[in-house]
Amino acid sequence: MGKKRITTIVKIQLPAGAATPAPPVGTALGPHGVQTMEFCKQYNAATENQRGSVIPVEISIFEDRSFTFVLKTPPTPVLLRQAAGIEKGATSPGKESPGTISDAQLSDIAQVKMPDLNANDLESARKQVAGTARSMGISVK
After folding, report:
1. Distance between CA atoms of 41 and 20, rounded to whole angstroms?
2. Coil, strand or helix: which one is 11?
3. Measuring CA to CA, which of 2, 50, 66, 118 is 20 to 30 A from 75?
């Protein structure tokens, strides 16, 4: 028996421990013949301890309609908003600053994001996170 061939890879962002077969899960997986309820059960079990945050997932769907999935780190803007304690970023970055984060918080976020960033070291990861913060209007002190 050879390896199963991947037919497609689907990427979606879902709330941790709270995925339901309703959209966006159903609309993303339905056309590929994947059992959405089965995926939701496995995803919710895997992310139960991270409730309250958004966890992106990359689902590999095989020819026989089976699947595997890989959990990613939460999106950088979500982590920045949590650290700054704000609801959303600035509508016009540069003119307004909805919040600030400390240098230590920036390092913590870069550390969390490190596996998913194309950065060789922590310093370049910090620069990427700082750039996202700047585009959201969040200043780093």
Report:
1. 9
2. strand
3. 66
